[in-house]
């Protein structure tokens, strides 16, 4: 399982807004797979400087794990990934529902799941209304 670290300097959000669209965010009454009212698609958060701590504290695995190769950039992989204790959570863009099943993603997700299993961890993938445990 990847280690969580501070954000990597050369990895920025860029034009990615998956964390503003894919998860449900109770603080904003935002359902999953709907763009946050504070997000400008392709640009980012319009309240970035004053965003709430739940947004400020979010650690995208792409931004914190420098072992992930370029194809894991969320703008390429169409997935946002983060750790929750022993669990790795994957939110796959429902506009690209099969991408997490393709290579190189599937084998990496299976590898993370195998490493996490002895300690009770796993990988869980959410894609639209579907949930898959690896």
Automatic annotation (TrEMBL):
This is Zinc/iron-chelating domain-containing protein. It comes from the Bacteria. It comes from Neorhizobium huautlense. PANTHER family: UPF0153 PROTEIN YEIW (PTHR36931:SF1).
